[in-house]
Amino acid sequence: MIENTLSRYTGVVPAKISRLLRLTQSRIYEDKEYRSWIEALDTDVLGETLPHARVAYERHLPEFTEHLKEKYGMVNTPMSAYTLGNWLVGFLRYPDTIINLSKMHDRIPAEAFSDMLPEIITMLDEMPQGRAEWQRALALMALPLVASRN
Fold this sequence. Notes:
By secondary structure, this protein is an all-alpha fold. The protein contains 10 helices and no strands.
């Protein structure tokens, strides 16, 4: 269950994750508790360890992108290790823009996020430092993307 995955990486109890997932994406972005979790992320550590995240993503994203293409028919995805890492850090430095993530990913079914999120989070397992911070940030940023869009 995606709630358990998100809970494991964010440190937030499953009941709170479930509460948010019952909301629409836009309501999650407005939720005070969710916003407090985003604001508590250490953007300095994430920025300092960005090169490590890029290396981890570079090793695994081609296979991941191929899986998206095969399973969900998604082609021409602009995801790269560089953009994925930079977007995460950039959105966290400007938290009022995080809602744009939903708009940027609206063609991707929520089921695809739920299905693929554990894999993209575990890509970061081999980071020599900053792993937990990156996994937490990615899980929190992705949380609204697995929720209902209506």
